[in-house]
Design a protein that fits this description.
The structure holds 2 protein chains of 2 kinds.
Chain A: H1 21-35, E1 43-44, E2 50-51, H2 83-86, E3 90-95, H3 100-112, E4 117-121, H4 124-127, H5 151-157, E5 168-171, H6 176-190, E6 199-201, H7 206-212, H8 219-236, E7 240-241, E8 243-246, H9 248-253, H10 257-277, H11 282-285, E9 289-295, H12 299-319, H13 325-328, E10 332-336, H14 348-363, E11 367-369, H15 382-398, H16 412-434, H17 438-443, H18 446-464, H19 490-506, H20 510-526, H21 531-540, H22 545-556, H23 569-574, H24 578-594, E12 599-603, H25 612-623, E13 627-630, H26 637-646, E14 651-656, H27 661-674, E15 681-686, H28 693-698, E16 703-705, H29 711-726
Parallel strand pairs in A: 3-4, 3-11, 4-5, 5-6, 6-7, 8-9, 9-10, 10-11, 12-13, 12-14, 14-15, 15-16
Antiparallel strand pairs in A: 1-2
Helix pairs in contact in A: 3-5, 5-6, 6-21, 10-12, 10-16, 12-14, 12-16, 14-15, 18-25, 20-21, 20-22, 24-29, 26-27
Chain B: H1 14-22, H2 26-37, H3 43-54, E1 62-68, H4 74-87, E2 92-98, E3 107-109, H5 116-119, E4 124-130, H6 142-151, E5 156-162, H7 167-172, E6 177-182, H8 189-194, E7 203-206, H9 213-227, E8 240-243, H10 252-268, H11 271-298, H12 300-314, H13 320-330
Chain lengths: 727, 336
């Protein structure tokens, strides 16, 4: 490279190599005559970025950082000088299910099979700070992750895994204090000191208020927990990442790349401000902030996103006064997109995952989770998990891709796209700042609505066929063979956990536990001692996850998000489409005959807070002319039945994504029957493994609307099911 | 689907419905509200008969109207106020009206997500209803729904609506006391009064006072100054502004006391009965207008030409008055 002399080709005709406008005009002419008017038109992404058909040197003329080096500011090309040529990224597969023993066996097998670290998925009861014996969580225990109630579970979870050597990543945000404390105490009892521990705790509460909803407390006290953990780990756990600032869940909820990037970086900035506000110096903790992005199918754009992420974080941290390189460089974990996986033709998911993995690698990720191909059907099975891990091993060890650092650098396209991505994200960050920062932007529902609008538009494009998904809305798969999937016996897990809880409670010094818990409560009330330090003391004495959470809940209460939904977004994009017109007519006909519009309650049962599907469906059905009741999150079957009856709906649609359907859906049907409302039709949507469907029908569920169902098909199924239920 | 379970209240027969409502069945109450809201022509005589049966048990509640701009914190206030009202020993029904889309006719009814604690209480009943194209953002049959709730033994009924269009006047016109929610940042009291809805209000609430207590207190004080210049709705009750924080509970008990005071002052002066008498006459006219309109649009000759006429008016090819006249002629309401 020759540095970056800025040349204007029109005024310097003798000096190659920049193309002139005249040359380009010729090219446009040729493109149009070859392919028609649209052939040369740029594609506009959902973020509003233009991706052109042809890039030339002109596109790289005004780059702000045209020729930088990896391992040096602004770290656009990577945080380390030699990147994968020195050491490849860490293969870190997220997993966890049922009991601590079963998850432990899975981790040990994965480590033996080439995985480099452990990444723990907890069940939703644990996320939301309930012990397994709490009646509210009966359907959630062990269903979508491992159940952890006390340090005894943690010790089983990590049995035989040397915590001083193996790095551990834990996805925990709501009940982050007792879970992190449990890990620390389990290590201590293995003989490993806090200073030796390496790994990551997600501890990213802001995104929970936007998308995933596994929060417990209101935003302000939740931010205090985050900063207490940052402070504690900075002092005692120098090798441990205190926050994993996560865009992944925003991506999964429907945020396109620039929106995901912007909100994630804005979250990061908010955590830095919170830590600074309690008097820490920025370089004391910033090096232990890590990131986590989702990688979807828009290949070039995803690579550009990771490059832009490093540039922008450097810029933000410069503004915050950081000096140390470790504070200025963005290090990130990535996960291939779970949302891009399909239940239909599931082996296609292997290909999708490989392509997304490649984008993450070209983008320069530090660690990677590749999804198992059966994840749109159930929790990953052993075979699918092995293929997923091998996908990364093949890229690392067979392709020589790791031999070149940031190979896309210097591409007109990639450099332009990186800069445009950074520019668009920077605008969104400024918008969030103008709302008073991300705590306020998340609390007000602004951020959630931005994402939800994109998700709803995306659904409309898929249903209309303008976004292609092979095997789903184009080239439909023939009836395929059934894929073998993992099933969890939730009632067995529940029994094991309850027994262990009884044992733990029987064998401890009750007075000491109560004293430690009231110290926690006092600190919540008075802004006193570090909450993590106090929780470690309580957990050492065998206080449970539920008890520690309850100690804080006494002061702070349980938070409940209340963002309004989007309307009108879906319908606009389907206008004029034939299937849409037919569904509209069917709804109108129903309303004329019934004397009111079809009315459906879209409900979430149990502790599963993933509400993208529920909210998109609600929005689409309302645009079709349904009256749609949106139920609160985290309901019991009895509460949903009561709401269905009071609102006198025709149907209840339950969105289920976390494996609770086997217990919770039959319970709902039973509750309706008991109250004399058996004519209210119950439908299920979301992830329901095929083998479970007959049992659900048997229990009285009218229909199961799997992934890939269009809103219009969903509407027609609802109408037919309502009629049948009342016949 | 398996065989339907027995319906103990005998809801399948309309005759059992009124019994069920009186007997405290939630299912019967919900079904009765659906019946009075139904737009099916053959449901109307059934609805009128049920209302007649229930009549002896109606009229006994304190009817509270509650309105405010989107985002003013209505549902959150109802959640807090409702729990207080129930704790005082009352049985509370909430009728929450959400706007239906003018494009699709559908609606998203999300109020219960903000009232989940209230909705779990035995002594509470919450029914969201779509406005379904009725004027003013209130369901055409809300007054009838109020009566059904009264017959079911609810002695406090809150009607909650978004304060757009004519909604505030509509709600004030079907309730005993009317509460208006204001955002503390929405300009000074005089400006609010100029918008007109303030003069309908018995109590003006600055909710979300916890967000910015200083702004809320100041806005409340300015409003009280402005209100002192205003002629009260009735001589018996002068409107007042208060601040409430639904989150901390500050001001909730005071708001309830204020509402009871309004009711008692009006009753003592004989104004409460007069208000309900006037509302009865207005409701009669409302019903007539709604039914005439509904008959008109379901007339076959009108239905055939309506879309085309609307189009012609929209394009300016026909004056609205002329189009209206032609449609009235088609319906046989005018001679050509």
């Amino acid at each position: 490279m020759t540095g970056a002399p800025r040349r204007d080709a029109a005024h310097d005709p003798g000096d190659p190599p920049l193309r002139t406008s005249a040359d380009l005009a010729d090219w446009y002419g040729a493109a149009r005559s070859a392919g028609g008017e649209g052939a040369a038109a740029a594609r506009i992404t959902p973020d509003g970025l233009a991706v052109k058909v042809l890039y030339t040197a002109k596109d790289a003329e005004d780059l702000e950082h045209p020729d930088t080096l990896p391992g040096f500011e602004p770290f656009l090309r990577g945080p380390h000088a030699t990147m994968y040529a020195g050491r490849p990224w860490t293969i870190r597969q997220y997993a966890g299910f049922s009991t601590a023993e079963e998850s432990n066996a899975f981790y040990r097998e994965a480590l033996a099979g080439g995985a480099h670290g452990v990444s723990v998925a907890f069940d939703l009861a644990t996320h939301r700070g309930y012990d397994s014996d709490d009646p509210r969580v009966a359907g959630d225990v062990g269903a979508a992750g491992v159940a952890v109630d006390s340090v005894e579970d943690m010790k089983l979870l990590f049995a035989g895994i040397p915590l001083g050597k193996v790095s551990v990543s834990m996805t925990m945000n709501g009940a982050v204090l007792p879970v992190l404390a449990g890990y620390i105490v389990a290590a201590e009892e293995q003989g490993v000191s806090q200073a030796e521990l390496s790994g990551t705790i997600q501890n990213d509460i802001l995104k929970e208020f936007m998308v995933r909803n596994t929060y417990i407390y209101p935003p302000d006290p939740s931010m205090r927990i985050v900063s207490d953990i940052i402070a504690y780990t900075a002092q005692h756990m120098p090798r441990f990442n205190s926050v994993s600032i996560s865009g992944y869940h925003l991506h999964e909820a429907g945020a396109p790349p620039a929106l995901e990037l912007a909100l994630t970086l804005a979250d990061g900035k908010e955590y830095v401000k919170a830590a600074l506000a309690r008097g820490m110096g920025v370089d004391e903790f910033a090096g232990r902030l890590s990131f986590f992005f989702g990688i979807g199918m828009d290949f070039y754009v995803e690579v550009a996103k990771l490059r832009a992420a490093r540039l922008l974080w450097w810029r933000i941290m410069k503004e915050m006064g950081a000096q140390k390189p470790a504070s200025l460089m963005l290090r990130t974990h990535c996960q291939t997109s779970g949302w891009s996986l399909t239940a239909q033709d599931p082996y296609n998911n292997i290909v999708r995952t490989a392509i997304e993995a490649l984008a993450a690698v070209f983008g320069g990720t530090q660690s990677l989770h590749t999804n198992a191909f059966d994840e749109a059907l159930a929790l990953p099975g052993d075979f699918a998990a092995r293929i997923a891990r091998n996908t990364q091993l093949i890229i690392q060890e067979e392709t020589h891709i790791t031999g070149v650092v940031d190979p896309w650098a210097g591409s007109y396209m990639m450099e332009r796209l990186t800069q445009d991505m950074a520019g668009r994200a920077w605008e969104i960050i400024a918008q969030a700042e103008s709302l008073g920062g991300m705590t306020r932007a998340a609390e007000s529902g602004w951020a959630k609505l931005q994402i939800e609008r994109c998700a709803t538009e995306q659904q409309a494009r898929l249903d209309a066929g303008s976004d292609v998904v092979v095997g789903v809305n184009k080239y439909p798969a023939p009836e395929g063979e059934a894929v073998e999937i993992r099933t969890i016996d939730n009632s067995a897990v529940l029994a094991t956990q309850k027994a262990r809880l009884r044992e733990v409670r029987a064998g401890r010094d009750e007075g000491a536990v109560r004293a430690a818990l009231s110290a926690l409560t006092d600190s919540a009330r008075t802004q006193g001692d570090n909450l993590l330090a106090l929780t470690i003391a309580a957990v050492r004495l065998r206080a449970t996850v539920g008890e520690c959470s309850q100690a804080l809940e006494q002061v702070w209460g349980r938070y409940r998000g209340t963002a309004a939904g989007v309307v009108g977004v879906y319908g606009v994009l389907r206008e004029g489409d034939e299937a849409w017109r037919q569904a509209l007519a069917a709804v109108d006909e129903f309303a004329r005959r019934e004397g009111r519009r079809p009315r459906v309650l879209v409900a979430k049962l149990g502790q599963d807070g993933h509400d993208r599907g529920a909210r998109v469906v609600a929005s689409g059905l309302a645009d079709l002319g349904f009256d749609v009741d949106i139920g609160p999150l985290f309901q019991t079957p009895g509460e949903v039945a009561r709401q269905a009856i009071e609102n006198d709906v025709h149907a209840v649609g339950v969105s289920t994504l976390a494996g609770g359907h086997r217990t919770l859906l039959p319970a709902l049907v039973e509750e309706l029957r008991r109250r004399g409302a058996a004519d209210i039709a119950v439908f299920a949507g979301g992830v329901v493994p095929a083998p479970d469907v007959p049992a659900l029908h048997e229990a009285g569920i009218v229909a199961v609307l799997g992934p890939g169902t269009t809103i219009t098909d969903c509407a027609l199924t609802l109408l037919a099911g309502i009629r049948a239920s009342r016949a | 689907m398996n065989a339907p379970a027995a319906q103990p209240e005998g809801l399948s027969s309309p005759l059992g419905l009124a019994e069920g409502v009186r007997g405290g069945s939630r299912r019967a109450l919900a079904k009765a509200i659906t019946l009075v809201e139904s737009t099916r022509p053959d449901d109307l005589p059934l609805a009128l008969a049920r209302l007649e049966e229930l009549r002896p048990d109606t009229g006994g509640s304190l009817r509270i109207g509650l309105s405010g701009a989107p985002g003013a914190g209505k549902s959150t206030l109802v959640e807090a106020l409702g729990q207080h009202v129930v704790a005082c020993g009352h049985r509370l029904a909430v009728l929450a009206i959400d706007p239906s889309s003018a494009v699709s006719g559908g609606s998203v009814l999300g109020d219960k997500t903000r009232m989940s604690d209230l909705s779990r209480l035995e002594a509470a009943f919450i029914r969201p209803s779509p406005s379904a194209g009725a004027h003013g953002g209130v369901s055409a049959r809300t007054p009838e729904a109020i009566e059904v709730c009264e017959a079911a033994g609810f002695d406090v009924v809150i009607v909650e609506t978004v304060g757009v269009g004519q909604a505030e006047a509509e709600v004030a016109g079907m309730t005993d006391v009317f509460v208006l929610l204001e955002l503390p940042f929405a300009g000074d009291g005089l400006q609010a009064i100029k918008r007109g809805s303030t003069e309908l209000a018995d109590v003006i609430v600055y909710a979300k006072a916890d967000l910015d207590p200083v702004a809320a207190t100041a806005a409340c004080a300015r409003m009280n100054d402005a209100l002192s210049l205003l002629r009260p709705v009735s001589a018996a009750a002068r409107p007042r502004a208060v601040t409430v924080s639904a989150h901390s509970g500050q001001g909730v008990a005071e708001l309830w006391t204020e509402l009871e005071r309004c009711r008692d002052a009006r009753a003592a002066a004989g104004a409460a009965a007069v208000r309900r008498q006037r509302q009865g006459i207005a409701r009669m006219w409302r019903f007539i207008e709604a039914e005439l309109r509904s008959d008109f649009v379901s007339d076959n000759a009108v239905r055939e030409r309506l879309a085309e006429m609307e189009e012609a008016v929209a394009r300016g090819e026909m004056t609205p008055a002329r189009a209206a006249n032609e449609l009235l002629v088609l319906a046989g309401r005018r001679s050509g």
